[in-house]
Amino acid sequence: MQKIIECVPNFSEGVDLQIIKQITDAIESVEGIKLLDVDPGKATNRTVVTFVGSPETVVEAAFRGIKKASELIDMRKHKGEHPRMGATDVCPFIPVSNVTMEECVACAKALGKKVAEALNIPVYLYESAAQKEDRKNLATIRSGEYEGFADKIKDPNWTPDFGKDFNEKSGATVIGARDFLVAYNVNLNTTSVRRANSVAFDLRENGRVLEENGKKVLDENGEPKREPGLLKSVKAIGWYIQEYGIAQISMNLTNISVTPLHIAFDTAVERAHARGMRVTGSELVGLVPLKCLLDAGKYFLQKQKRSIGVDEKELIKIAVKSMGLDELAPFDPAKKVIEYVLAEGKNDAPLINMTLTQFANETASESPAPGGGSISAYMAALGVSLGTMVANLSSHKKGWDEQWETFSNWAAKGQALKEELLKLVDKDTAAFNKIMDAFGLPKNTDEEKTIRAKAIQDATLFATEVPYITMQKAFEGFEICKAMVEIGNPNSITDAGVGVLSIRSAIYGAYLNVKINASGLKDKTIGQQFITDAFNLLQTAIQQEAEILAIVDSKM
After folding, report:
1. Concatenated DSSP letters for 264-281?
2. Highest CATH level, class, for 4-177
3. Active-site residue 82, yes or no?
4. Active-site entry in 39, 82, 89, 426
5. Is 348 in the active site?
């Protein structure tokens, strides 16, 4: 499986789009690199670039970007709201798929060595790549910023990890490896940086330095005492953004499993209100994992005591509106969600992405696929969708407010099951195509015949497994529909009944596919076991259907 690493270099230029374009062109000149996002900020005079690739390609692309930045950006002339120490201020590597943190650390070290030797830019390693404990924190390394580094680098405690001399034009660069970080700004109805900072200090894990009578309170070691902030794994400062005419709380969420996006937002709302301000919206800098927005959507629906069993698109819409992510600029999930950006141009689910008419026409065409297996999976998805609909309607039924959470849980279960069944629609057709491909393999030599025979058997086994999984997943839908028949909105009892009919039909259809495909397996023991298990599941499904429909009839 492909190894994917994300790299997010921050360049100290956010105004001159031509310079930014030359840097990103240099990055994209490496074959195999996919540029995901370019996010310039005028007030910060800083651009966050996000790209992905294999370990080897991201290191080369990062080097070319840093090299181009060193040619085009002169730190002696740089001004900006964001703390910075170099033309390429920071360059982290982040594991995305099939990659360990250790591999990202190796990338950071390889890049640091190359930057120092080829470009004469001093490099510090941070986070997981740090060689010293006190260099894990980016803010600690960057303290003093560009203006203070000519002196700081002379301190033996701050000898760079690679290189040694301060580069007056390019400054210094911090390179590292870290977990996924969400850069997130919360908008305030004030222009005061001091007041924005007061909220930032409330929030950030590091909190604020304690003071008495205007003086810092020191501990027994002479170090300033601190009052911890409310949010773990959060760094935050306040600043004023000229282009928007507002102050913001700028946060880095360094572990979104510890402090999710929605908790950071809601806590900022509470602390701003406590200090006489109001949060008007927020913005995401760079990309965000899909889970962040889905979790946020569910969180805000639950606060409203509404069902969370809605589709992905609706959850994202709720998240965007609840946190005001579209206040300063339109929010396009296709450009801000990392999974969507990575999937751009791909169509891994051609059938379920069709319109109903297109799907029907494709099924009716002379092509043998999609066939009964795909249709069975789709029938099951529709049946589960009907049960989910009844759960959502019941959650919002007037007078049933005390039961909203029960129905919300059923709807969420239905949504998840529906998504699994929809994937099986395309997977069944893919299984059929796999068999056709295997039969198309050459068979001129004994070796080719052996390879072809094995490919046919592997494909036949896969084509047997897929409809059997469809039967199992469809069967899970009975539980949802039965619950809705028994406790759901009585006005929708027939909808749940139709869901049951659809599920039983889907199971029967998938059974037929299991039976015919299993008969093609040379291992007759495995083939017969599939047929026996599938038949038993079908009989149980027919019994379930009869029991649930009897309840429907009794209530009508």
Report:
1. HHHHHHHHHHHTT--EEE
2. alpha beta
3. yes
4. 82
5. no
